[in-house]
Design goal:
single chain; little secondary structure; two-stranded parallel sheet
Length: 266
């Protein structure tokens, strides 16, 4: 509706009647000069599509969506992609029970320091680059995530440079097929426990844990693969601890140096 209004600095939409709206995709996309947006009167109870709704709203520094009713929304693909100046997302009120697609949802939100979410992701199948490029994000609570139907996780945390820890114990990865570059360039990550990961259906593990120079503990003891060779990680830290199955270790293209402690798990 306002897609591509790059010079638009303000917008008065308090009188909009949106009760019957089902598609809000691209609505404010590329409104690069828009500094504020009051959506408190928006009725979104029938909306199904919010894909790329705020993509490239580079001038927004905050966004209050506490009034949004998202119980019918099926796609949030790229919803906030490249909202580069929003520092905090408070989306704890979002009901995501019907969401199927979270591809690039927060991708490129490089100044976001907090993302408060309590998502029901039981129907989501795509999380590619969901948090990719969230360079300022220090922590992320994903304990509510049900990933049992997810097939794509490539680049999910790519370039999350400030993340120091990540608890993924709730993740069910039994249906995931692609984990390419999932943690690449997580510069501050010191440990990564993926002992609950099921990788039996994954066909692409390339560069999954690349360019993580602070990483000194990696637990991939549950990993298995039918692939002959896997370019999984480059072990940038001089020393560390690796927990791994012996047959999976043999498949690694790059193996840890002798200064790493390798614990073979049967």
């Amino acid at each position: 509706m306002f897609f591509g209004c790059k010079s638009l600095k303000s917008l008065e939409i308090q009188n909009f009647v949106t009760l019957n709206a089902i598609d809000m995709s691209l609505m404010f996309r590329d409104c690069t000069s828009l500094a504020s947006l009051d959506l408190s009167k928006f009725n979104t109870e029938n909306v199904i599509d919010m894909s790329y709704m705020f993509e490239n709203c580079n001038s927004l520094v905050s966004l209050d969506l506490s009034s949004f009713d998202t119980k019918k929304v099926e796609t949030m693909m790229g919803m906030f992609e490249n909202c580069k100046n929003i520092k905090a997302f408070n989306l704890a009120n979002f009901d995501t029970r019907e969401v199927r697609d979270a591809f690039s949802m927060f991708k490129g939100c490089k100044n976001a320091e907090t993302i408060d979410i309590n998502f029901n992701t039981s129907k989501v199948n795509d999380m590619v680059y969901m948090f990719g490029g969230c360079e300022s994000l220090v922590s992320l609570d994903l304990q509510s995530f049900d990933t049992s139907n997810v097939k794509e996780m490539a680049g999910m945390f790519y370039n999350c440079k400030a993340l120091t820890s990540l608890n993924l114990n709730s993740f069910n990865t039994s249906n995931v097929e692609d984990m390419n570059s999932m943690f690449t360039n997580c510069l501050s990550l010191t440990s990564l426990d993926l002992s609950n990961f099921n990788t039996s259906n994954v066909t692409n593990l390339n560069h999954m844990i690349y360019s993580c120079p602070s990483l000194t503990f990696i637990d991939i003891s549950s990993f298995s693969s039918s692939l002959d060779e896997i370019d999984l990680t480059d072990f940038q830290s001089e020393t560390g601890v690796l927990k791994i199955k012996e047959d999976f270790l043999e498949k690694l293209k790059i193996k840890p140096s002798e200064s790493w402690t390798v614990n073979i798990i049967n």
